[in-house]
Amino acid sequence: MIRVTTVVAVLVALFAGTTAAPGPALGEGSDRREQHRVFTVTQAMSMNDPVHHRGAPARQLRTFIKHAPRGSVISIMTFYMASSITWPALKAAYQRGVDIRAVLAGGDDGTPQPGVSSEGVKLAQMINAGRAHGRRGSWVVWTDNTARGRDTYNTTMHAKFWQFSRLGQTRKVTMIGAYNNSDAADARAYSAMVTLADADLYDSVQEIFQEAKRDRRAGGNPFRKAAGEGWDVYFMPSTPISPDNDPVMKRLKEIPADENTRMVVSMYSWQGRRGEWLARRMAAMLRHGAHLTVVAGPDVSGKVIRILREAHAKLEDGCWRTGRTPSGFAYTHDKEMTATWIEDGETRYAAWIGSDDWGNGPGGSQSDQATIGLYSAWAYNRLTKLLAPQIAHEPDNLARCNPLHRSGLPVMMR
């Protein structure tokens, strides 16, 4: 059964989802050292809300980057890097002696994709200039399709995590989730990130990062998983994938299918053979009394919708027109799930956050993904609160919605 433990509580909230000790703005010399001395990080969770609270994960990242001291390392594995919020902080961090290492999504020829990583290009140029003057320890890898899987026309490096070897007083911090680090994502896409200061998690993610920087297939099946106190994490690609080895199917089989079980899913893409077997599993759980709410994003297939509707899931729009975003659309880019159930007479809580879309395609099982499960009331309640604006949106007509149509952005906003 899924393990349930309590994660350490948040210490001090700088804003919703970020923890830090209060203090003056970062200065130079002794002032900066004092800021690093008092800054701490524990657990945190933030959501980009393009309608009500735009750019929260980017600002959280900016805060973290500013508190990375000289000699520390920032490790980045992300699909997008095109944020005007985080770029100045990264530039300043490199200039003060922080090493920055990044695995970024490249195209078929292993070069930057237009519109995807403008700040990643700047980062690579800055690091190359530093290397020309003897600076070592920083690098950027542009993947050729996937980093750890089989390279085909429809695979990509899709994971989204940032790691900090040190932030102020805190060592080994990992931030992981669904957030694309870009101004365009801030303007239109709901997406969450969770932060944990956990050495075992940091080390497990670093193993994958070190594999990914080689940009070649990792073993027969590159699927990996790890677990620690109050969490577990899995890394795709999974090639092959089937109902027997699908980590989401395993998750669903371990949750009781009865009237005490309540689940919420917010999913950008849910389609294909994999999407259908997961939908059928959830439909079976509903028929045994479980409750399910689904925020259906732009790439949820009609077949999945029909399976869930026939099982009487509560379906919510995950893509709609709005006058409050620059593109005219808001949509879920989340790949999140919450669940609560009763087991052995006790109420259990869980939340899952990551980059794994529920399908076989570029955003799913064939590409690089990282998804973390958290087993605590804090994680469940925090993610429930962050998902509430998507669920509250009305009306829910589930009309076909393409938020990137004629936007000038790559269709691969995954």
From TrEMBL:
Pfam families: PLDc_2 (PF13091). The keyword Metal-binding does not apply. It comes from the Bacteria. Residues 64-211 form the Phospholipase D-like domain. Coiled coil: none annotated. InterPro entries: PLD-like_dom. The lineage of its organism: Bacteria, Bacillati, Actinomycetota, Actinomycetes, Propionibacteriales. The keyword Signal applies. Residues 1-20 form the signal peptide. This is Phospholipase D-like domain-containing protein. Keywords: Signal.
